Amino acid sequence: MEMKKAGAKKILVVHGPNLNLLGMREPDIYGRETLQEINDDLSQIAEGAEVTIDFFQSNSEAALIDRIQLTITDGTDFIIINPAACTHTSVAMRDALAATRLPFIEIHLSNIFSRETFRHHSYFSDLAIGMISGLGSKGYQLALEYALTAYIKQAD
Ligand code: DQA
Questions:
Q1: Superfamily (CATH H level) for 32-81+92-134
Q2: What pTM was estimated for this model as a whole?
């Protein structure tokens, strides 16, 4: 779902595999909020700031790469991404993000460094402006607020 505003700066929020299950998926780790609720909160912030926000979730790595590639031509200015399990596996998604040359923030609901060691490495973090991990859904909101103040408003 996309809310368009003429001439407005555009932010894309990308959610990786299994994040469609938020709310019911291991709530002790990921919280009880659904993906729709998280996106709705971000939409509200974006609306107040008069920027366009677009959301994309997929369980398919190929679909995620295709959507990231689309930002090269669709006018996206900034990406907020939770690559989910692809964080730890996907050179292909990393390469897609690098190809866009867009600034992005990496989000994790859980603190990936306090979990299994295979979650400690991210293929994205060194390319990202920054990473927020362990603050639950608040992490997305903080990333959006940062994008708005540090990138979007500055560029007006
Ligand atoms: C996650 C952490 C990943 O390790 C995991 O595979 C996810 C979600 C997080 O938001 O905490 O699916 O990215």
A1: Dehydroquinase, class II (3.40.50.9100)
A2: 0.94
- Compute, in angstroms, the gap from residue 110 CA to the centroid of ligand 1: 7
Residue 41 Cα distances to 4, 38, 140, 156, angstroms: 17, 5, 9, 23
Which residue among 119, 122, 137 is best mutated to probe the pocket of ligand 1, counting the most ligand atoms within 8 A of its Cβ?
119
Give tens-digit pLDDT for 125-146.
999 999 999 999 999 999 999 9
- In the reported structure, the alpha carbon of residue 114 is separated from the centroid of ligand 1 by a whole-number distance in angstroms of 12
**Residue 31 has which token pair?**
């919280």
Closest approach atom of ligand 1 to CA 107: 10
Q: What is the pLDDT of residues 81-137, one digit of tens each?
A: 999 999 999 999 999 999 999 999 999 999 999 999 999 999 999 999 999 999 999
